[in-house]
Design goal:
279 residues; alpha+beta; Jelly Rolls; 10-stranded mixed β-sheet; 5-stranded antiparallel β-sheet; 6 helices; 15 strands; 16% helix; disordered C terminus; Cupin-like domain-containing protein; JMJD6_ArgDemeth/LysHydrox; JmjC_dom
Length: 279
């Protein structure tokens, strides 16, 4: 569903989360204190010296940079001279020593907020018992995603049987979703599954996807669990994104927890009350 009229919070839970229905809200971020599009140069002045992790087209770690150096290398030209690395900068997701984005989110906290129709309670992943605030608290896969034109994420299914929410802040990004079961995971217990590249519909898939949309600055998309999807930046792009499991639809999540106790992110967010505050 694509709309310019946001749902109420109850409508979102009942008609989208509970039934795993995607949702695109055009200009749903216009109430932010700093409404999109943001400015890369301003971000460089705020967080340019911070270290960021760089990835390939499917979460394969390829190195570190500063935000400023990444900007100068991949974002200053509309057509980069080289395929852009993908900057995926997460808040703390485990006890591992990585350049987490917590300080960057702290610096940006006054600029954005979760869309008004997202629930503030009822989350079981993260296991937060009270009111949840995605701006000030850590969520699974909560991150700042940045890439130059042509940066992509290949076909995949999100881990942890979780839903995802993405806010497009700078640039245009094409996102394509298929129905659950279009491509089965290689391993039924896999936390995420590689499907294919986004250049063409993989053999045997339906000709028509469930959703094929170009997000502009200010748009946002809800991607329910188990839906294969891919994304490509049509211009230098920045998105804010996070994952969650809500009690309205926890299909498969509890079984996953029982079978994948060694997953660092699952462990970290199983009882995160004491360590969720970012600010």
């Amino acid at each position: 569903m694509i709309t310019s009229t946001p749902p109420t919070r109850q409508e979102f839970v009942d008609h989208h989360v509970a039934s795993a229905r995607p949702l695109v809200v055009r200009q749903g971020l216009k109430t932010w204190n700093s409404a999109p599009p943001w400015n890369f140069e301003t971000l460089v002045s705020q967080v340019g010296a911070q270290r960021v992790p760089l990835y390939g087209s499917l979460f394969d770690f390829i190195g570190l940079s500063t935000f400023r150096n990444y900007h100068d290398r991949f974002l200053t030209s509309a057509t980069p001279a080289e395929p852009p690395a993908y900057l995926r900068w997460y808040t703390r997701q485990s006890e591992a020593r990585l350049p987490w984005a917590d300080d960057a989110f702290d610096a940006l906290a006054g600029s954005w907020h979760a869309p008004e129709w997202l629930p503030t309670d009822g989350y079981i992943f993260p296991a937060y018992g009270g009111q949840a605030d995605v701006v000030r608290q850590s969520f699974p896969a909560k991150g700042i995603f940045v890439c130059g034109r042509g940066g992509m994420t290949r076909w995949h299914v999100d881990p942890w049987r979780s839903d995802a929410y993405l806010c497009q802040v700078i640039g245009h990004k094409r996102i394509v979703l298929y129905r659950p079961g279009t491509a089965a995971p290689r391993d039924p217990e896999a936390l995420g599954s590689v499907i294919d590249t986004p250049h063409a519909v993989p053999p045997g898939w339906p000709a028509e996807p469930l959703v094929d949309v170009i997000l502009a600055p200010g748009d946002c998309i809800y991607i329910p669990q188990n839906q294969p999807h891919a994304a490509v930046a049509l211009s230098p792009s920045l998105s804010i994104t996070w994952n969650f499991v809500h009690r309205a639809n926890d299909t498969g999540y509890r079984e996953l927890v029982a079978s994948a106790a060694d997953d660092a992110t699952l462990r970290y967010f199983s009882a995160p009350v004491a360590r969720m505050d970012v600010a």
